[in-house]
Amino acid sequence: MTGMPQPFGLLAEVTHQCPLHCVYCSNPVELFERSAELGTDDWLRAIRQAAELGVLQVHFSGGEPLVRGDLETLVAECRGLGLYTNLITSGLGLTESRAESLVSAGLNSAQLSIQGDTAESTNLVAASKRFDKKEAAARIIRDAGLPLNMNVVLHRVNLDRLDAIIDVCVEWGAERLELANTQYYGWALRNRELLLPSKTQLDEAVGVYERRKAELEGRMELLWILPDYYEPYPKPCMGGWAQTALTVSPDGRVYPCPVAEEITTMEFPSVRDHDLEWIWAESPAFQAYRGTDWMPDPCRSCSRKELDFGGCRCQAFALTGDAGRTDPVCIHSPDHHLVQDALDRANDGAHGDAHGDGDGDGEQLVYRRPTVSARRS
Amino acid sequence: MDESELTAVPRLASKAMLRHDNVRDVELLLLPERVVLLNKSGAAILGLCDGNRTVQQVVEQLERDFEATDLLNDVMTFLKDARGRGWVVVT
Questions:
Q1: Do A108 and B17 touch (CB under 8 A)?
Q2: Residue A243, domain member (yes or no)
Q3: Is the pTM here over 0.95, yes or no?
Q4: Which domains occur in chain B, in start order?
Q5: Sign (positive/negative) of CA torsion A14, A17, A22, A27?
Q6: Using CB atoms, which residue from B14, B30, B86 is nearest to A57?
Q7: Is A158 part of any domain?
Q8: Peptide bond connecting A63 to the previous residue in cis, omega within 30 degrees of 0
Q9: Is the CA virtual torsion A295, A264, A238, A315 positive or negative?
Q10: Would you call B33 and A147 a contact, using CB atoms and an 8 Å cutoff?
Q11: Residues near A262 by Cβ (< 8 Å), separated by ≥ 6?
Q12: What is the mean pLDDT of residues A338-349?
């Protein structure tokens, strides 16, 4: 495999089942039923093949990975192979005994998500009333001897609460907090009008982030994931297509990133039919946008093409219907108006907010559920 | 050099995992969301931070293994940095 990149990380999306219904969920809009999920043996095989391919870290995610009763078996396999394991969890369903059994199996770390700093704000974006379970989960994770990493997705509804959100994570004993500005795919794209912040709101949040980062140095690490709509150039998504990591979805299909499932014009291979080495190195889907040969202009002649790799293929597809175009976030993209128009609306003073108290303008958040859309509270 | 620094017992942080990567043939420190590529001496030092050896004993072991002398300052500098990064805890 000379010249072929080797993946460092495997994102194992073991299920789409989840007790939360976040309006920005990165899962595809079409969710898999449990009956479509890979079995334990398929996952064990995929993990072994990933290790042979060079994967060093396995992130168990979903949905809520704790839904799978065989998680300990999968973690133990990773431990046996010397792979570092991370549990990405909502915290719902995490008990002391479950944490103990996962740690015994070899779990190395956990990342706990929160959606806001209170039960009310959690309910608004996740349609879940169990904020108390998250606080309990933070304690359980720390008591089990695991480093507590936390994550919050930021958007128009919670950016003004950033200070209070950071306070919660400090209080719960997090070592690291990822402040992930919403990326607009799938569910988040559906809800973009209500999630995209204004420039003023974002600038204030950046000020809070910088102040708290300095204040918390040595105590809690703060990480700011850029809101790409407000950047002049696209993000170097995943370090380029099929370069550093791969995602296996609940049904066994393999993607270069967690949201590539949305590129419905491409056929992605499955671990049920192929081994991971072929999928990574040779499958048409993984080769499609690897490197720079696929690029159209303006990327092809751009001096930044090795810096951002044309941006995100999934975003290009989501906004233009063609995964092979320049990411519309880029100011040089012929499709940039698709992003600029959304930004203009977000910065229009008349923009309706999802956290108002019912001023009757009809704005609705669509919750991550197969069919239900809930009117805002 | 403070005497207490020599008798301190460094231990790899529980969140960190040290391993040799057979695929790339390199020494690595695995952390949540992070992979650190170590040089040979860094890997050797961390490999001795087992929660039993004192800093003094780590240095003596390294001097034997590498047939070297005067490693104390280098080891202390590395351990201070590693501790600051949360790779190593000291008891």
A1: yes
A2: no
A3: no
A4: 3-85 (3.90.930)
A5: positive
A6: B30
A7: yes
A8: yes
A9: positive
A10: no
A11: A28, A29, A185, A186, A314, A317, A318
A12: 92
**Which of A56, A143, A238, A280 is the best residue to mutate to test the B interface, defined by the most B CB atoms within 10 Å of its own CB?**
A56
Cα–chain-centroid distance for residue B20? Answer: 15
The tens digit of pLDDT for each residue in A181-203 reads 999 998 999 999 999 999 999 99
- Note whether A109 contacts B: Cβ–Cβ < 8 A: yes
Which amino acid is present at A46?
A
A180 and B33 Cβ atoms separated by less than 8 Å: no
pLDDT digits (tens, 9 = 90+) for A231-273: 999 999 888 999 999 999 999 999 999 999 999 999 999 999 9
**Contact map slice: A 168-197 vs B, CB within 8 A:** 175-176
Element (H, E) at A91: none
Which residue range forms the structural domain that includes residue A206?
9-230
Binding residues of A: 18, 22, 25
Q: Which residue from B41, B44, B54 is spatially nearest to B10, judged by alpha carbons? A: B54
Which of B19, B24, B30 has its CB closest to that of A54?
B24
In a domain, A149, yes or no: yes
Overall domain count for chain A: 1
Residue in this structure with the two tokens 């790339």, named with its chain if needed: B24
Q: Which amino acid type is present at position B41? A: S
Interface of B with A (CB under 8 A): 13-15, 17, 19, 21, 23-24, 28, 30-33, 35, 84, 86
In this structure, chain A runs to a length of 377
The CATH number for A85's domain is 3.20.20.70
Nearest residue, CB atoms, B24 vs list A6, A86, A175: A6
